[in-house]
Design brief:
alpha+beta, Butyryl-Coa Dehydrogenase, subunit A, domain 1, Butyryl-CoA Dehydrogenase, subunit A, domain 2, Butyryl-CoA Dehydrogenase, subunit A, domain 3, 4-stranded antiparallel beta sheet, about 15% strand, globular, binds flavin-adenine dinucleotide
Length: about 375
C-alpha cells in the first residue's frame, strides 16, 4: 500500500490549487451561503472548463478516468482549498447508476447535463417520513393504468429538488417478495403535474435546501424506468460504499482547512502577553486535531485503495464513514473553540464549516447505522463455528 502522491496526482492538485487561487471568492461564497442559498455557479463553471467535474467518468463517456483513491483525494483537496462543500467531486459516482443501468437515451441526457452544468440533473428521492434508516419501510408506489405509470407517495429531505430538473424516485411494489427485491428507480420530471415541493431550511449546507416531495398520481411513460423493475435498491446500492467515502472526504478536507487556519491564528492571537499557541492546552488541542486528521486520511485512502484493488470494503466503508463523520466534527468544534468569540460569527469560515460537517453524522447513513452495518460483520469474523 503506497499513498505517496503520483506525478499525475501532483499535477491534478497543482492545477486545482491554481484554479482555486484564481477563481474562488470567499466573500461571494459567504453571501451565497447565508443570504442567497445558491451554489457558486461561476466557480463551478471554471471547474467544468478545467475538466474537474467529469473526473472518474470513463473516457468513452467524455470523462477523465481516475482510480477511487485519486477521486477521494480530490474531494478532500477541493474541500481543503475552498473550505466549502461543493457537489461536484462525486459526479462520477452519482451518475454511475444511470450509466450502468439506464437506456442510451437516459445516458446521453445525463452525461450532456453534467458536462454542461457540473452537477447531475436529478435529486435523490429515497427517504420517506416513516423510512429513514430503515429503507425497507418505503411506501411510494408505481402503478399502471392504460399504458401509463402513476407514482404516488411522499419523499423526505430531498436535497436540491428545486434546482434539479428530475427526481430519481425509488418506489416499492407493496405486494413484492421482499422490500429490497421490490424497489424500482424512476426518473420523474420535478415540474410534472402532481409533484409538490415543500422547502425545509437546513442549519448548514446552506447553498441549497432540501424538500418534502409529495407525489400524487404523477403520470410517467414506461421509458422513465431506469434499469430493471424490482432491482432499484440493488442499482442504488451499487456504489453506496464508495459514495459514503466521497461524502466524508469533504469533512476531512474541511477539518484540514480548519486546522491550518487555526494553527496560523494560534501563532498570531495574543492573550496574557503571549500568542495563544504558547499555552500547552492549546498545543494539546492542535496535536489531537492533527492526529485525527492523519487517522481520517489513512482510513479513507486505505479503504479507497482496497476498492481499487478489488478487496471488499463492506466493513471498512462503514468504519471510515463513522470515524470520519465524528472526527471531522470534533476537529471543527476544537477549531471553533480556539478562535474564541470571533469563531462564533457568520463572518468566520470555521463556523460555516462547523455547520456543514455536522450533517455527515446523519446523511448517507447515521453514525449508529454504521455500527449496525459494521458491528454485525465484525462479530461474524470472530464467531466460533
Ligand atoms: C443534509 C442531509 C441531506 C439529505 N439528503 C437526502 C436526499 O437527497 N435524499 C434522500 O432520500 N434522503 C436524504 N437525507 C435523509 C437521510 O438519508 C436520513 O436523514 C438518514 O437516512 C436518517 O434517517 P432519518 O432522518 O429518518 O432518521 P431515523 O432513521 O429516524 O433515525 C433517528 C435516530 O435513530 C437512530 N436509529 C435508527 N435505527 C437504528 C438502529 N437500528 N440502531 C441504532 N440506532 C438507530 C438513528 O441513528 C438516529 O440517531 C438527507 C439528510 C441530511 C441530514
Amino acid at each position: 500500500m503506497d499513498f505517496s502522491i503520483t506525478e499525475e496526482q501532483e499535477l491534478l492538485f497543482e492545477n486545482l490549487a491554481e484554479l482555486v487561487k484564481r477563481g474562488w471568492n470567499e466573500t461571494e461564497y459567504n453571501d451565497l451561503y447565508y443570504n442567497r442559498h445558491e451554489l457558486p455557479q461561476g466557480f463551478i463553471d471554471q471547474l467544468i472548463e478545467a475538466g474537474f467535474t467529469m473526473l472518474g467518468v470513463p473516457e468513452e463517456y467524455g470523462g477523465t478516468p481516475v482510480d477511487y483513491q485519486t477521486l477521494v483525494m480530490f474531494a478532500v483537496e477541493l474541500a481543503r482549498l475552498t473550505g466549502a462543500s461543493l457537489p461536484v467531486a462525486s459526479n462520477a459516482i452519482s451518475i454511475d447508476d444511470i450509466i450502468s443501468f439506464g437506456n442510451p437515451e437516459q445516458q446521453k441526457f445525463i452525461l450532456e447535463y453534467v458536462a454542461k452544468h457540473g452537477t447531475p440533473p436529478f435529486a435523490l428521492g429515497f427517504s420517506e417520513p416513516q423510512a429513514g434508516s430503515d429503507s425497507s419501510g418505503i411506501l411510494t408506489t408505481a402503478t399502471r393504468n392504460g399504458g401509463k405509470v402513476y407514482i404516488n407517495g411522499h419523499k423526505s429531505m430531498v436535497t436540491d429538488a428545486d434546482i434539479s430538473p428530475y427526481l430519481l424516485v425509488i418506489t416499492r411494489d407493496l405486494e413484492g417478495e421482499t422490500p429490497m427485491k421490490s424497489m424500482s428507480m424512476w426518473l420523474v420530471p420535478n415540474d410534472a403535474p402532481g409533484v409538490k415541493l415543500e422547502a425545509l431550511h437546513k442549519i448548514g449546507l446552506k447553498t441549497g435546501r432540501f424538500f418534502e416531495v409529495y407525489l400524487e398520481n404523477v403520470e410517467l411513460e414506461e421509458s422513465a424506468l431506469i434499469g430493471v423493475e424490482g432491482n432499484g435498491f440493488m442499482q442504488l446500492m451499487k456504489n453506496f460504499e464508495i459514495e459514503r467515502l466521497m461524502l466524508v472526504a469533504t469533512g476531512v478536507g474541511m477539518a484540514e482547512a480548519a486546522f491550518e487556519e487555526v494553527a496560523r491564528y494560534a501563532n498570531l492571537r495574543e492573550q496574557f502577553g503571549k500568542p495563544i499557541g504558547f499555552f500547552q492546552i492549546v498545543q494539546e488541542k492542535l496535536t489531537d486535531m492533527k492526529i485525527k486528521i492523519e487517522n481520517m486520511k489513512t482510513l479513507l485512502y486505505k479503504t479507497a485503495w482496497k476498492k481499487d484493488n478489488g478487496i471488499s470494503i463492506q466493513i471498512d466503508s462503514a468504519l471510515a464513514k463513522r470515524y470520519c463523520a465524528i472526527a471531522s466534527f470534533e476537529v471543527l468544534d476544537d477549531a471553533l473553540q480556539l478562535m474564541g468569540g470571533i469563531g462564533y460569527t457568520e463572518e468566520s469560515r470555521i463556523s460555516r464549516m462547523w455547520l456543514d460537517v455536522r450533517h455527515l453524522r446523519i446523511a448517507g447513513g447515521t453514525d449508529e447505522i454504521m455500527v449496525h452495518i459494521g458491528g454485525r460483520q465484525l462479530l461474524k469474523q470472530f464467531r466460533y463455528h
